[in-house]
Amino acid sequence: MEISSRDYKRVSVVRVVGRVDSLTAPQFEDKLKEFIAAGKIRLVVEMDGTDYLSSAGARALISAQKTLKPRGGQLALAKPSKRVRDVLQLAGLESLFQIFDDTEAAVGAL
Amino acid sequence: MAQLAPVGEPQVWLYLLILSLALAGVGALLLRRWQSRRALEHRLSELAMLAGVGRAILDAQLDLNRLGEVVYRQASQIVPTSIFQLGLFDADRYRLLIWVMDGRARPPMEFRLTPDSPGIVGWMRESRRSLLVRDFESERDSLPAQPRYISPDPPRSAVFVPLLVGDSVLGAIAIQSRKPGAFTESHLRLLTIVANHAAAALENGRLYEQARRRAAQLELLAEVSQQINAIQPLPSLYQQVVGLAADKFAHYSVSFFECHADTLTLSATTRPEWQSQVPTLTMATGLGNGIAAESALTRRPVLRQELPEFPRDMAETGARPGPQPELAVPVEIDGQVLGVLHAHSRDGATFDESMVAVFESLGAQMAIAILEARVYAAERRRAEQLAALARASSAVTSTLDMDDLLDELLDLLAEREFFGYQHVRIFLAQGGKLEYCAGAGKGAARCEAEGLTYELSGPGLIARTGRTRKPMLVGDVTIEPDYIAGPDFEDTRSEMTAPMVMGPRLMGVFDVQSDKPQAFTADDLQILQTLADTLAVAVRNARLFDAERRRRHLAETLREVSAALTSTLSLDDVLDLILDGLARVVAYDAASILLVNDTRQLVLRASRGSPGAAAALGAPVDVQLFPSGEDHPETVVFGEVDHRGAYHDLLGLPDPHACLGAVLALRGEHLGYLVVDRAGQTEFAPEEAGLIAAFASQASVAIENARLYTAQREETWVNTALLQVAEAVVGRPTLDDGLETVALLIPMLVGVGRVAIYQWDAATEKFYARRVRGLEREAAADLQRLAASAPDLGIDVLAGAPAQAVDCDLPPQLAALFGTGAGMVWPLRARGELLGAVLADRADVFGRRVSIMNGIAHQLTMVMENALLAREVAQQQRTERELELARGIQASFLPKECPSVPGWDVSAYWQAARQVGGDFYDFFPLHADDGRERWGIVIADVADKGVPAALYMALSRTLMRTVAINRVSPATTLARVNQLILADTQSSQFVTMFYAVWEPDTGRVHYAVGGHNLPLWARADGAVRSLAGRGAALGVFDDAQYEEYEIEMTPGDVLLLYTDGVPDAINADDEDFGMERTLEVVRQMRPESAQHIVDAIARSIQTHVGQREAFDDLTMVVLKRASVAELGAG
């Protein structure tokens, strides 16, 4: 798993490439926490390169979302891969996140 | 004829007349008979004489001169022959064989016949007729040709008879008399007959003569070629040829001129008046210098024999001497004129064509002989040169001493007269110069005395040869613009030079000069180059040998010094030994050793040869005077020191002097300097610098050894102490005890006044002083309260390097407490982790103290690392215990056994990952009002690991059991459990769950999905599909609602419940096991028992995953309704 990020004026885009499984999910979760700690409350997680998302990975997303919402921020997903969508759909978690088909739209919407 | 007179009467007279007539007739008859008889007798006598003449003539030998004499004698018997000439025609020339004037014989002469006034002889040649002149005076006007009178007493009568053979006029006989009427017709007739005889004989003789001459010529040529066939020195060859030619041709004197460039030199002659002029007589080739010079120029034979014109009065002309005929033929080969062969007529004898041919042949023979002789001489010289070269080579290569080598070479060259040289000099390359090094011949002494040197870039042939590295041959230095005359070399006319080159290096230049122009040939140059090449090798060898000898000497000295140095451990002795040893290899006037002492001051510790040394020993020296030793951790030699005044004043050394020094350093530590001075301007040579460097290295080791020895006991004590510290520290149960021990030891062992031991707190990223020594109590307490950042102590947190002391300028607040801003800090790191730091007063730590502090820092690191390790071990044990706990919790909540229901087969599989995931499954009987048998079946996955997951699982399971027990609807059960979970926890944890209510009697299964993987339903007929359904994971949404679904399992149907550990199991290539494989295994295994089915899936997954460690829990539940066949069998 590789995580990179780029900051826009109001929004930060976090790009996750590779597998977010139970081994790497803690790292992913820490990274999201780092952003939140830095006051970045509008996050777009770009997931077209995410090969796999385990339930632990989903938990990281939920955890971030739960933290952001009360602060007036939110976490949105951009271009999630089919695998990611399947996982979210299966767990019934899609409704937790705004999901966009392109990153710009996500950035613009937040 | 006689006349008779009358004698009687008329009768008588008549008678008498008749008688007398008769008598007269008789008389006449008698007279006629007498006359006839006389005539006959005369005729007979003539015939007899002519026969004698013919016999004599024809009997005469074939020698032309002798024949001429015979003709002359026979003619004398017929007519008076006091003036007699017998001559032969040869083209336009007339050669007198016999010339007698007034009875005296004259030498043979040759004349030119002029066609415009041929004279009587010419007329005879034309008309082929004879002529009788009874009296020139009376017949002058009727003569067919006119003689010219030169003499006051000319001949009066003459008889001229041509010598006829066949159609040609061979020559003429002319007999003259000073009396008129001296010759008659009869004489003419007789002489004609004699002439005819003579002509025949002369023709024979002429032919014979020709043959004889030709034979003589051939004989000469044969003889000459035989003589000169044997190769001999050229002068004797010339002498021999000249002698032989003169012998064969008695009428000529022969000379030979040698030709060099444009000069002819008389080399041999048989001409008496020239013999004293061999070989001084010289002439330039060209016109106007005689025929030899002309011949050399034109390369053609030149003949000069201006014959006198044939006189009409042949009696007179012979008296006038004409110019002597001479012949010169060039001796040339291949267009090169080697010399000129020259012949002079001795007695007016002339050269005919055959003679010219003979001399030409002779010339050609000589040319070959000369060439051979020259080639031979050149070969011999070359052979001698080569022999000498071989000797020179073996001589120079067998000598390794440079001076011997050059001496030997020059001796050899002189002895051999190698190139017939005048001067030979050898220059050796030194830097950008060519220095005179050895030489022979005149001028050598001056070159030596003046230290003759040519700049390599400067003018002159020697410098040019050095630059171009090409040999040069200058035939005439006077026209060579680059030429510079060396001292005493003003006479030089030609010069050759050869570079001595060894690979890319110019070793020197070999120079040979001669006072003669064109003294050297290309061969000589080649020989010289070969010699130069050999010499280059030899010089190189000699230099290497020299260097090697010096090295050996140095090595020997160094070894001795080294041996001496190791025999003592007193520093003073060591320094003395170093200076003594240095004096053996480098000539110096003064030498000193300056050492950095414990207080980092540079101090004069030992000195030789300087007047002020004794007083100055121990005095500090400004280190600024020298190159920074700190910058030169290796031993480095430095040259002239610019600002050395103070140092030299200290030593009382007079100016000027050359100064050379070396940094004394060992393993990066700067010890001091070794400085050598030499009075005067002579700089130190690079070799000397090398020697001093070598000594400096030795000295550094020895000084350090001596110092180490001095420090040894102390060190031993320190080491022992450190060892004890280490033991004490190891024995300390706590970090505080360890730090206390070390803090106590530092001032004792190192002599450091102030010291603080810091511990790094990774959480706050600050250093905290745990122990302080050497400060007032209050200051120490304040310091311990003041947290220091990494930059405060000059430490880079991220640097992974091991502990290395760094200088640190403390921030003001810290400096105020510590008492100084100049700190020295040892960062303490282990495994790349910063653990702490030691701070000391920089002024206290120098030299050896640094290493002791390094050792203590190391100890401290170990103390801290041990504490850290102990903590980590405890942490790990705690984690391990937690994992055990989690595993225990998880395992304890799983059903001990599967429901046993007739007609059904239930089996479960559970395998926890090492870190323990949050999977669980559960079976529990439900109690409904209708009393029908129902089972609740749960499979779930908590999105977490370890103890928190286990606890969440326990919570979920308990809530599930509690809520489910009284409910029939799985949907309402999940919705209620979700509410309870959310009420209980605030975390973001959630659990996916599949919950089924199973009625064994009917085979119906009601279920609801809480975000969990949908089970696979394999029908008896082989159709396999996932169950339909959806719903959110539990623990996420407050008001999550669930739908309820129902299926009816018929006999043979199989239902597989699983967690994501099944499809998501990945192999080493990150390839997951996937639903396809799962489905296929289930389809194939469906006839088997539930246990077999889970085992088969587990095996399949294991095969797929291979060695890769499972990172997730793996959980399955198989519910199978027995097929009809199974029921029958059961």
Number of helices of chain B: 25
Shape of chain B: elongated
Question: What kind of assembly state do the chains in view correspond to?
Answer: heterodimer
The helix-strand sequence of chain A is EEHEEHEHEH
Largest chain interface and its two residue counts? A-B, 21 and 31 residues
Tell me the number of strands of chain A: 6
Termini gap of chain B: 209 Å
Outline the structure in words.
The complex is a heterodimer of chains A (110) and B (1130). Helix content of chain A is 39%, strand content 29%. Chain A is of the alpha/beta class and 110 residues long. In chain A, strands 1, 2, 3, 4, 5 and 6 form a 6-stranded mixed β-sheet that branches. In chain A, strand 2, helix 1 (25-37) and strand 3 form a beta-alpha-beta unit. In chain B, strands 1, 2, 3, 4, 5, 6 and 7 form a 7-stranded antiparallel β-sheet that branches. A 6-stranded antiparallel β-sheet of chain B has the order 10-9-8-13-12-11, with helices on both faces. In chain B, strands 16-15-14-19-18-17 form a 6-stranded antiparallel β-sheet, with helices on both faces. In chain B, a hairpin with a 2-residue loop joins strand 23 and strand 24 (669-679). The model of chain B is unreliable at 1-8 and 313-320 (pLDDT under 50). Chain B starts with 10 loop residues before the first helix and ends with a helix. Chain B is α+β, with helices and mostly antiparallel strands and 1130 residues long. Chain B has 25 helices and 39 strands. In chain B, helix 5 (185-229) runs antiparallel to helix 6 (234-248) and helix 17 runs antiparallel to helix 20 (848-893). The chains are: A alpha/beta (110), B alpha+beta (1130). Chain A binds chain B through residues 19, 21-23, 51-52, 54-56, 58-59, 62-63, 66, 89-93, 95-96, and chain B through 913, 915, 917, 941, 943-945, 987-990, 992, 1010-1014, 1030-1033, 1036-1037, 1040, 1060, 1064, 1066, 1070, 1072, 1111-1112.
